[in-house]
Amino acid sequence: MVFAGILPYNSDIFKAMVYRSSRYYESMQLTEDFYCYIWQGKGNNCNTCLFANVLRGERPHVIVDPGHITNEFGEACFDYFIKAMEGNGFKIGDIGLIINTHSHPDHCQANELVVKNSGAWITLSEEEDEFRNTLGEKLYSMLGVKVPQFTPLFYLKEGSLSLGTKNKVELEIFHTPGHSPGSICLYWPDNKILITGDVVFYGSIGRTDFPSGSLSLLKKSIDKLSQLDVECLVPGHSTEYGSIVKGKLNVERNFQAVKLFL
Ligand SMILES: [Zn+2]
After folding, report:
1. pLDDT at site 166
2. How far is the CA of 213 from the centre of ligand 1 (A)?
3. What is the pTM of this model?
4. Confidence check: pLDDT of 7 > 50
5. Distance 150 CA to ligand 1 centre (A)
6. How far is CA 134 from CA 128, 180, 193, 211, 252, in A?
């Protein structure tokens, strides 16, 4: 089903936007090869992004933040994610790389199952991996959650990240601490898409009350992101205002509004 009426008409990337809803994930195709899976369940889980057919070889897909395996409501998030992907014709076994915006379990608990199914590589920032293995581990056990189990293949640094040679996707990585010390955001200049993890949401900002959280660092991170030319902001979670912020003007307004919290 295409809800053309709510899409801005001045941007090519929205012309191909297709929504398919299931009970647990809303699947949005934002470009020919880029999909967002927006979590719709009762409990907590993150949104997941998929760059399809970008890597060479037998496992061509790249995902950002596979989310929970099972959340606090017992919802089988990972099983539902597999179904949502299959609804678009993609298999979990064809994922070659997982990018984690940060190490909170609601973003990367399912890393281990993706790896089990596909042998995918994993990357995140070095700061975040260090946090996961030190303060993070303590925090997660206080919350009654096991620290997410995985071994990154390489670390992301601020700068450019080129995904594959098949359908080349050139990303810019921004180090955006505040919510978590090694949070990163991904910017795709060709399509003016910004994936923000838990740094900024539709009408809201990431919480900073966890250990190593910092409101002043979050403010600097959001100031940096707000300088970018963005048509589509994809946050890590939906809020009461919505999920994805669409259209340059709406993105600018969203940055103006969230800066009031800082
Ligand atoms: Zn988080």
Report:
1. 66
2. 10
3. 0.91
4. no
5. 17
6. 10, 13, 32, 11, 36
